[in-house]
Each structure stands twice: as C-alpha cells, then as structure tokens.
Amino acid sequence: MNRRMLSSDNIVLRAVEPKDIGILQKWENDTSIWKISQTLAPFSEETLRQYINTAQDIHIHSQIRFIIDYNKISIGTIDLFDYDPVNLRAGVGVMIDSAYRGKGYAKVALELIVNYCKQILFLRQIYCNITEDNVPSIRLFEGLGFVRSGMKKDWIRIAEGYQTVGFYQLILDGT
C-alpha cells in the first residue's frame, strides 16, 4: 500500500502492532467512552493480543483498525467496520485520546480514511452513527460532507434511559 495514501504532514494511519497493546488497553478500558463504543467489559492484554494477531484483514473480518500517530505519538484510532464488498460500503469510527482532542487530528485522520476507502477499497459510501449529544463528532463528520439521512430513536441504552442516534452517510464520488 502506498504510504502516502495513509499519511499527511504529521498524521500517519498505520496498522496496529503488538507494541500498541498498552495504549489500546488504556483506550478500550476508558469507561468514559464505553457509551460510544458500546463496550460492556474491560479488555485484557491477551484479548487485545489475539485481536492484533487475527483481526487485521478487512476482507476476512469485515473490519480494520488503524492507529493514528501524530509526530510518531499514538493519539487515537480510526476503524472501518461492517465492510460490505457487495454493496461497497463500510462504517467508520474515530477515537482521539482526550489529551489530543479539539486540535483537528480527527479531521485529518478522517480525510485520510475517506481517501483510502475511495482509492484502495473502491467503496461507494461510508457511514457512521453518532449520538445526538455528541456535537463535536456531528460537526466533524458534517464538515467533511457526511449527511444525516436518518435517526435511530432510543437506539442506545444508557444509565439514564435511552439515546437517539443519527445515521450519517457520505456518498463517495467517482466510484
């Protein structure tokens, strides 16, 4: 794969490696984002090791995760999931470490993954689900051309009840 495809001036999207287990465990076990990730239990080092060793082929597992590096510091992840090679679509999700949020890194990573989806996977569309209270994510995705095409009422159960989720799509031109 062309390295330039997955990099900008200071952001690189790279494959998950065994050296990332510690940072992945920190992020995956951060209960403040479990509502968004729909995580219900902590991830062990062994679970993450198995994931890294077996689940990195989008054509086999219908998902792929990239580490987002900023100047060689791992600051987050961006995932493609629910890859559908028949209908040429995939879901996308991005997570930036709280220390690096609000600095535009998610925007650059999302731009890179959109190009990857167009030029490598030849997808027709990318979609995401965003809770209606996640204003920064809504701004991020809408700013890159994603359009809310539906609402999933009472879709996510949280301690206070249920939350509605917006369904956002980006139709990729030229595919």
Task: Report on this structure.
The chain is α+β, with helices and mostly antiparallel strands and 175 residues long. The chain has a domain at 3-123: Aminopeptidase (3-Layer(aba) Sandwich), CATH 3.40.630.30. Helices cover 29% and strands 35% of the residues. The chain contains six helices and seven strands. Helix 1 packs across helix 3 (45-54). The protein starts with 10 loop residues before the first strand and ends with a strand.
Average pLDDT taken over every residue: 87
- In percent, how helical is the residue content? 25-40%
Residue share in β-strands? 35-45%
CATH class of the domain at 3-123: Alpha Beta
What is the CATH third-level topology name of the domain at 3-123?
A: Aminopeptidase
Ranges where pLDDT stays below 50 over 5 or more residues in a row are none
For the sheet with most strands, the description reads: 7 strands, mixed
Distance between the termini: 19 Å
Task: Give the strand line-up of the largest sheet.
Answer: 1-2-3-4-5-7-6
Strand count? 7
CATH second-level architecture of the domain at 3-123: 3-Layer(aba) Sandwich
Radius of gyration: 16 Å
Shape: globular
What's the number of helices? 6
What structural category characterises the helix and strand content? alpha+beta
Helix-strand pattern: EHHHHEEEHEHEE
CATH-defined superfamily of the domain at 3-123: Gcn5-related N-acetyltransferase (GNAT)
